[in-house]
Amino acid sequence: MADKLYECDLHVHTTASDGGWSPEEVVALAARRGVRTIAITDHDTTAAVGRAVAAGGRQGVEVIPGVELTTAEGNHLLGYFIRPAEGELDQYLSALRKRLLAYMRRVVEDMRSTLGLELTPDELERCAGGGIPNMSHLLHLLHSTGRLPSPRFDSPEAVEFFGDSEYLFNYYRTFARSRPFTDTARAIRMIRAAGGAAVWAHPAHSRELDNGYIDSLKACGLAGLEVVTPKHGASTRTALLELCRQFNLVPTGGTDYHGRYYESIEQGSEIGSCGVDPPTFERLKESAESLRKTG
Questions:
Q1: Which pTM was predicted?
Q2: CATH number, span 8-84+199-283
Q3: What is the pLDDT of residues 193-226, one digit of tens each?
Q4: What Å distances lie between residue 237 and 10, 35, 80, 241, CA to CA?
């Protein structure tokens, strides 16, 4: 039996963060697979939203403006139906991008002196295209200039070049030690203030599920839990559905699609292989509208 194709995939990344395909390419992939709705949820940036919405209009794919916020506690908060470039959320993302850009400039300069890297920090910034500069962009540049034969993060050549099989995670851990990320409660409040609905991404992958903690996030304005994701097995999805029922939260879903650089991790997951049905999507939309009315 063929795998189920969901009409609505609410967790998709682009080259604005650590995705492997541009906003236009991601929308084209969705259209070819018959996915009607996708949410662009790049890590800590909304830079791809405008281009994706425009591409969706041309290809008949509804694109939901979104974001995936990293928090100090290690949680990821998805924001749906947000108004990009507005208010506290926009100010926070702009400041975070500046910190990441300064950090990646130091990373590149260090690699220039220790590894003989011929790329410049300016090239890396241009590759990010207004988004969050990170190691995915560096992999792309190393591949496009012929320094690496593959853009995959775990290729033998990449591991040999960086001299560390954990280089990707160590890059993130080093940046995280500077405590650049906001706390989960504030992340929820910023998403709400931007007109969006806040959903806890792959919660069982982030920490042990705890009713008291979920109740505290609901009090801050949490609207849903991501249930249908490649990171959750059947029993976990069942448990999360029960928590959604118990706390009146919307059960959402998405592939957490990155593509190209991370194919070995995603194990063949394609846009639409996880997601939600139209009635659940409408419920999420109604939740966002209700939250906007209540403030």
A1: 0.94
A2: 3.20.20.140
A3: 999 999 999 999 888 889 999 999 999 999 999 9
A4: 16, 22, 21, 6
